[in-house]
Each structure stands twice: as structure tokens, then as C-alpha cells.
Amino acid sequence: MFRKVKDDIYSVGIIDWHRKLFDELIPLPDGTSYNSYFVKGEEKNAIIDTVEPDFVQDFLDNLDDLGVEKIDYIISNHAEQDHSGSIPHLLEKFPEAEVLSSKKAKPMLLDLLDLDSDQIRVVEDGETVDLGGRTLEFIDTPWVHWPETMSTYLQEENILFPCDFFGSHLATSDLFVEDHSEVYKAAKRYYAEIMMPFRMIIKKNLAKLEDYEIDMIAPSHGPIYDNPEMILEAYQEWVSDEVKPEVVVPYVSMHGSTDDLIKYFISRLIDEGIKVKPFNLADVDLGDLAISLVDASTVIFGSPTVLTGPHPSAVYAAYLANVLKPKTRYASIIGSYGWAGRMTDKLLELMPNLKVELYDPVVAKGHGAEEDYQEIDRLVEEVKADLENL
Ligand code: FEO
User: Fold this and answer.
1) Are 191 and 248 spatial neighbours (Cβ–Cβ below 8 Å)?
2) For position 21, what pLDDT does the model report?
3) 145 Cα nearest atom in ligand 1
4) Which of these three, 239, 261, 279, is where a domain ends?
């Protein structure tokens, strides 16, 4: 299967309808795709990124279906195997092809794949290759989401091929974005799970791309943006320092005490007209939690005490929040204990990356007394005051 993007530019990748997890970690509720692009010039041809190697035969069949007889350049924007993994197989079929990568990507490709050093040529930021009537320019766009990442820009057509950058894990038969809200959510999930820890560097990449006229963004996951303002504006918003007045509440309860406290907290926030997003960690899609952390001002964890510390599900959520480095400004903890423990200290120790103002936690003995619920009232007042001053 191949699909025409523009004259002599084809999408030759794979739609992975049924993949459920990425990195055995990240839920993929909508599957994904591994996009690869064939660009034909008057003299030379290029492939931009390849596909997950499990699908290499389908990928090679796509090229056969298209009638590709010669490949001069295999451009590796990103060394991760879902894009690079089929390069050795492609080189077996097209041994004359030259792999082009960033300086940092070359040793990574050699570490990850069965390739020889002389099969890979390093290209510099701003360097171009001429396909004959078509010019590909390489733009260093590091840390989206590995250190070696670059984008490829087709000058004559103003098409950016940024690999993971701007991508979405979305299996769809739409070659181009048709359902904006569906793609927006998938792209936000992708940003939250993959890109958010590198928010400040991505800001610089976005600023760099402002020097380019971009009519189309063709990422290596998800549909192509033929109206790229949508995703460029979304990224600008996500990487900005602005937060939304929203309270995210990841919580877990064992015998209902923490649950009662959290329910009261949520109802009090709603009484005050404050947007709240609870996530029961006993049964949560971590991607949904990550999305909510992209722009929420406040996160309040809920956990009982297990063996003197937080519940392991709360530990997992706190660890995740710490590595994702959201721009959250305020945080606290609500929980309960039976006889003793350092639940709040241990949970906070897991989140040194969160540059937040901490409200005093509310920790009840057992199911909680009147004073504990008054403490929740106090917490709600503090949250409200800060949200009014955002
Ligand atoms: Fe889609 Fe970072 O690989």
C-alpha cells in the first residue's frame, strides 16, 4: 500500500492498528503508525525514515507496489528502532543507498542496528542534498525526544518531516488530518508522554522553525497536517509557561478512608466552581493522567499508608509526574494512615523535579475526623486563592 502525498511524494509506511503498548509502558488506545516517505527527484530518490522492523516485509512490498527501483538516500531523522529498525533490510535491497543522519545519531544507529560506519554519512544542521529539482534540508531539532533528533525540510514544497516531533499515536485510514479533535487529543497524549520532559528545548526548536515557511507537516506517527497551524499553535500552548486553573487528583484508596476524603475535596472544589480531574490509580490509563498534567495548575495526590509509606500505585504516579516534569505550580497530598508512617514525606521525595508550591498535606487517622475535613476546607481555600491569581 502506498498513498500519494503530492506529486512524486508518497507515504509508504505502515498502519499498526492493534498495537496496545509502546516501550511496554505507554498505552496506545488508538494504535499507531510508522510513517515513511518516498521523495522522488529528477535525478535522485530519498526515503525519509523507515518502519518498525516487525513490518519490514510489508514496507518493502509497499516500495515494490510503488515501483521504486532506486534509492539514493535513506534519511534517518531519529535512531529509535520504530523508525530506523528497517534500515538494514532496506540497504540489503538497495545497497547503493547512503544513510544520512545527524552527528549524534550515527553512533546510536551503529549501536542499535547491524550497520557499518561507512554506510552512514553525517549531515550538519542546515546542510542540503539535491535530488534534482527537489532540495532536502536537514534541521537539527534535538531532544524530540532523544538527543540526536533532526527534521528534514523539503524546500520547494515547504514540507517538514519532523519524525516524532508533532506526531500522534493514531492508527487511521486518513492520510491527512480530518478529525481535528481526535488528532488534537492523540497529539496531546503523545506530547505528554514523550515530549513534555523536554519542554524548554522544544520551545527553542519551535522558535527555530519559525524561520521556515511550512505548508505541511508530515510526521512519522499519525496523520499528516496539511493545515499545520493547528499543531504548531497547540505545541506553542503546551510548551508555554501558562497553566490552566485545573486541579488534577491522582488517588488510590484501600478501605475507603482516602476515598471519602478525596470525594469531599472534589465536591468542595466543584462547589467553588473549580475544574477538577480525578484519576483513580487502581484503574487508570496513565496517558490520560499525563495529558491532564500538560497544563494543569495544581495536582493533589491521594494515598493511604502502606507499610509506613505511600501506596505503590501512588508511588508510580508520583514517579511518572516527576519524570514528565509538568509545569504544574501547586501541589499537596491527601491521605490516611492506621497507626504510623511517613507517607507524605516519602511521596514528596519522589518528586524533586516538580517546581511547585506545596500546601500543607491533609492526613487523617483512620476514616478522618471533623478536623480533617476542616483541613480539606482550608486546602480548598488555598487552592482557590491561588487559582484566582493565576
Ligand atoms: Fe517514534 Fe522516538 O520513536
Assistant:
1) no
2) 86
3) 2
4) 239
* DSSP-derived 3-state class of residue 33: strand
Helix-helix angle 199-209:229-239, to 10 degrees: 140
Q: Determine the average pLDDT of the residues in 147-160.
A: 98
- CA–CA dist 194, 210 (Å, integer): 22
pTM here?
A: 0.95
Q: Range of 111's domain?
A: 3-239
82 lines ligand 1 (CB under 6 A): yes
Average pLDDT over residues 155-172: 98
Are residues 57 and 172 both part of a single domain?
yes
Q: What is the pLDDT of residues 241-254, one digit of tens each?
A: 999 999 999 999 99
**Stretch (H or E) spanning 292:** helix 286-293
Residue closest via CA to ligand 1's atom 3 equals 80
83 lines ligand 1 (CB under 6 A): yes
For residue 304, give the CATH number of its domain.
3.40.50.360
- What number does the ligand 1 atom closest to the CA of 149 have? 2
Q: Is any atom of ligand 1 closer than 6 Å to the C-beta of 169?
A: no
Co-location of 269 and 230 in the same domain: no
Of 223, 239, 255, which residue is a domain's last?
Answer: 239
User: Is 19 close to ligand 1, i.e. is its CB under 6 Å away?
Assistant: no
Which residue lies with its CA nearest to atom 1 of ligand 1?
A: 164
pLDDT > 90? residue 93 = yes
Shared domain for 100 and 34, answered yes or no, is yes
Q: How far is the CA of 83 from the centre of ligand 1 (A)?
A: 7
pLDDT, mean over the chain: 97
Cβ partners under 8 Å of residue 64, min gap 6: none
Look-up of cell digits 480539606: 376
277: confidence class by pLDDT, cuts 50, 70, 90: very high
Looking at the structure, tell me whether residues 82 and 163 fall in a common domain.
yes
Please tell me whether residues 269 and 132 are part of one structural domain: no
Q: What's 107's domain CATH number?
A: 3.60.15.10
Residue 164, ligand 1, Cβ within 6 A: yes
Model confidence band, residue 53 (pLDDT cutoffs 50, 70, 90): very high
**Minimum-distance ligand 1 atom for the alpha carbon of 81:** 3
Considering only CA atoms, which of 270, 281, 302 is closest in space to residue 380? 270
Task: Calculate mean pLDDT across residues 360-369.
Answer: 95
Same domain (yes/no): 297, 361 = yes
